[in-house]
Amino acid sequence: MKKLSILFGLVMIVVTAFPLSSVLADGPIEGRAGRAEVRYLEGMIDHHQMALDMAQDCLNKATTESVRTLCQNILDAQSTEIETMQGWLQDWYGIDYTPMSMADHMSMMSMMEMMQGMSMEDMMGMMEGMDMSGNMMEMMMQMMSMMGGDMPGMEGMGGMGGMGGMNGMGQMGDMPMMMGMMAGLNQLEGVEYEIAWLEAMIDHHDDAVHMSERILEIAEHEELRTLAQSIIDAQTSEIEAMEGLITELSTVQ
Fold first, then answer.
1. Does the pTM of the predicted model rise above 0.70?
2. Torsions phi, psi of 90, nearest 5?
3. Which of 35, 40, 99, 205 is the residue whose CA sits 20 to 30 A from 88?
């Protein structure tokens, strides 16, 4: 169990602290503001993708019309913002960034669990026999390299020594929290599900607000500052609306 917990933590560190897109940048990101903008854009794209996964789950299960409307609004607004942020990463920094869904993360963790105790050759053979996207394959290779000191046949491939660049934008813990939350929601139905979903989305929105408040102090691109302020305003308003919906739904339980 201890080994599995360590492995789970390593997966989360790689996913959140070492985004795949950083490898695809045209060159080194210079300056604190530039690095902060990249961290924010990549982190917020991933954060938005979590919200999209949650909102789609809501549309599949919620029956209260006001809750369903909120979920659809989140899907519409945050899908557009993801496209905008992906465009800026490409235009400003030459980075092609595609977020992984929660389902992809779960698949990756399942594969990492299967790989425990395997030699590097066996792991490579297993990966070659799987139908994985280029992004997931590259991410798996990064994780295998970083975990080299702890896995058979991978000694000397970097181990944990290369883990000095955590993004610092509050993303550590988001993915395991979201996956745990979604597992809990899967056990609920009706109004109980809707209230729990709203509570989880309030916490999720709160993280986005704090991330955006921090980038306002550093960002140089005016477009990014405008988007960050828009996220603060929109998601603060949605938090208030969700608090009201929770109050309403609580009266019908």
1. no
2. -70, -50
3. 205
**Residue 239: CATH number of its domain:** 1.20.1260.10
CA nearest to 235, candidates 97, 105, 47, 84: 47
Burial class of residue 64 (count of CB atoms within 10 Å of its CB; 0-12, 13-18, 19+) = middle
Domain count, the chain: 1
- Residue 45: domain span: 2-250
The DSSP call for residue 26 is S
Query: By the 8 A CB rule, do 54 and 44 touch?
Result: no
Tell me the C-alpha distance between 95 and 21, whole Å. Answer: 6
- Are the CB atoms for 224 and 91 separated by under 8 Å? no
Nearest 5°: phi and psi at 18? Answer: -130, 70
For 6-119, strand residue ranges (E) read: none
> Is residue 104 within 8 Å of 178, Cβ to Cβ?
no
pLDDT along the chain (253 residues), means of 10: 41 42 55 95 96 95 97 97 98 93 62 68 68 58 53 40 35 51 77 95 96 96 98 98 97 76
